[in-house]
Amino acid sequence: MRQDIIRENYKNPYYPKKEIRVNKAFVLAVIFFILIFYWSYLVFYSPYFRINNIFVNKLEYVEEQEVVDMALRQMKERGFLIFSKDRLFLFDKEKLKNEVESKFLTDEVKVSGSGLNSLDIYIKERISSLTWITNNKYYYLDIEGNVKYEVEPSRVNRNYPIIYDGNNREIKAETGKPKVMDAEEIADLIKIFGAVGENTSFEVISFTYFDGDIHEARAKTNKGYELYFDLKQDINGQLENLYILLEQGFSEGELPKEYIDLRFGERVYYK
């Protein structure tokens, strides 16, 4: 008699079935590193996060493109030695702000990011009190008497004093920002410019400055003659002597045609 043996869930104790075990920690680690790689590529190399818009507000005296070029130069630098600084989170906004402030006359500079790839630069210009002209080139001076930067003649603000360098010194780029006048002398010229316009019937339209043993300033007036000042002496006293002379008046035929020299105290000469 034959009997079929039905084997259900038979396990040979001598040949146990091999189980495939999955190391979950390993899988999670692989997934983690893949995500890190993808995130790194997306952030550091994908064009999606690259700065592609640089906005500078409209400026009157500073060339906007020059500010953009300063930002572009920094974008070519490397952050953490290998990553380009063309990403907002790597771009050194404070560094650009300091560079703009050191090169241009400004009252306020703001550098900020907008969105994922736009750099916004806001500059509030400071109107320079004085324009320095030497070797047929125009420069702005700060209130300390330092040359800040060269400016196109067409962009010079003619409502403020213009100073011609009587010594005609050359401003060399490699010398940085040379100091051509003292801060006290700058203050004196501004005082002369304002005081003459307020207290006389004429105005000062420019100065010629001579740097030597006597720091002399010649103020050209819209009357055609010049006023000679010694910037090492008391400016208030020299202005007062000018007012006295003008109040006393000139004899007919003795009106000054070339100059009024105020450098020698109460002895005022004119020609």
Walk me through the structure.
By secondary structure, the chain is an alpha/beta fold. It has two domains: 72 residues, Ubiquitin-like (UB roll) (Roll); 141 residues, Rossmann fold (3-Layer(aba) Sandwich), CATH 3.40.50. Strands 8-7-6-9-10-11-12-13-14 form a nine-stranded mixed β-sheet, covered by helices on one side.
Largest sheet, in brief, is: 9 strands, mixed
- Radius of gyration over all CA atoms, rounded: 37 Å
Low-confidence stretches: none
Structurally, the number of domains stands at: 2
> What structural class is derived from the secondary structure elements?
alpha/beta
Instruction: Give the assembly state of these chains.
Output: single chain
| Helix-residue proportion | 25-40%
CATH topology call of the largest domain: Rossmann fold
* Extended strand count: 14
Mass-distribution shape: rod-shaped
Distance between the termini: 154 Å
Keywords: Cell cycle, Cell division, Cell membrane, Membrane, Transmembrane, Transmembrane helix
Protein name: POTRA domain-containing protein
Would you kindly provide a brief summary of this structure?
This protein has 271 residues and is an alpha/beta fold.
Keyphrases for this structure?
271 residues; alpha/beta; Ubiquitin-like (UB roll); Rossmann fold; rod-shaped; transmembrane helix
List the helices and strands and how they pair.
Layout: H1 24-44, E1 53-56, H2 64-75, E2 78-79, E3 83-84, H3 93-103, E4 106-114, E5 118-125, E6 130-134, E7 137-141, E8 147-151, E9 162-165, H4 183-199, E10 204-210, E11 216-221, E12 226-230, H5 235-248, E13 259-264, E14 267-270
Parallel strand pairs: 1-5, 6-9, 9-10, 12-13
Antiparallel strand pairs: 2-3, 4-5, 6-7, 7-8, 10-11, 11-12, 13-14
Transmembrane segments: 25-44
Protein name: POTRA domain-containing protein
Keywords: Cell cycle, Cell division, Cell membrane, Membrane, Transmembrane, Transmembrane helix
